[in-house]
Amino acid sequence: MNEETVVNVSLEAEEIAKEKKIKEQDEEDQKLWMRYKHSHDQRIKDSLIMKYASFVKYVAGRIAVNLPSNVEFDDLVSYGILGLIDAIEKYDPERKVKFKTYAKTRIRGAIFDELRILDWTPRSIRQKARKLEKAYAKLEGKLGRDATDEEIADFLKIDISELHKLFDETKKSLLLSLDEIFYDDEEGSSRFDFVENQKSDNPQLKIEESEAKKILADAISKLNERERLVITLYYYEDLTSKEIGKILGVSDSRVSQLHTKAILRLRGRLSRLRESLVAE
């Protein structure tokens, strides 16, 4: 048996052992859930809360990157814990859905509910975000390339420090509430009213989604290297801002700023594309 074969066998054995460990853990978790559902033992519930507390921090960390610095991370975790407790109470292990998949929606929902109560997106902030988006769209359309911070600041007739302050203020406008009034008709339709039932088969939607993904991928590919890396690590690799900061060797706030700029730049480009399509 040569060295390459030995290595392959070793890797295969490690993979089998890993899969076995995951299977055993899943079985243990299933037993724990069944015990709790039958007994509602507070001690089991407490152990479940402790077991998934780190997952709450992970979800909160993913949300925190879009929020201003005055929103405390510990507060987000506290809101998320409430969602976790609700998920534990309502989770049905017999449905064969992984708890983390089920709990993620509950945790995010609990955090967003509290943020809405705190009025985290005042009108003035949304106006500033739209102002920045338009600046990116107009200036980059004119230049035919990425606009620098200095050029955006000059375009808006503000200094760099004011621009960076704008980035921090507008982070929270990147979050959308499904309950927010989206179309001001007689009934006051919200964004949720326009969310389609994903279980229904819609060939046209699949085509539109495919085209949208191509357009978005093209827009992302044109971002500068650092902004593209932040978007990739955050949305495709599921890393938190702290983890991304370690990779890039920068602070959490700098990662957040790069993320905000990338999103604003993408929105500006996509809005410019939308306007050109409408004009045609």
Give a brief description.
The chain has 280 residues and is an all-alpha fold. The protein is 73% helix and 2% strand. β1 (181-183) and β2 form a beta hairpin.
Helix and strand arrangement:
Elements: H1 3-39, H2 42-64, H3 73-90, H4 99-117, H5 123-143, H6 149-156, H7 160-170, E1 181-183, E2 189-190, H8 203-221, H9 225-236, H10 241-248, H11 252-279
Antiparallel strand pairs: 1-2
Task: Describe this structure as you would to a colleague.
Helix content is 73%, strand content 2%. The protein has 280 residues and is mainly α. It has 2 domains: 115 residues, Rna Polymerase Sigma Factor, Chain: A (Orthogonal Bundle), CATH 1.10.1740.10; 157 residues, Orthogonal Bundle (Arc Repressor Mutant, subunit A). It has a two-stranded antiparallel ribbon. The radius of gyration is 23 Å and the shape is elongated. The chain starts with a helix and ends with a helix.
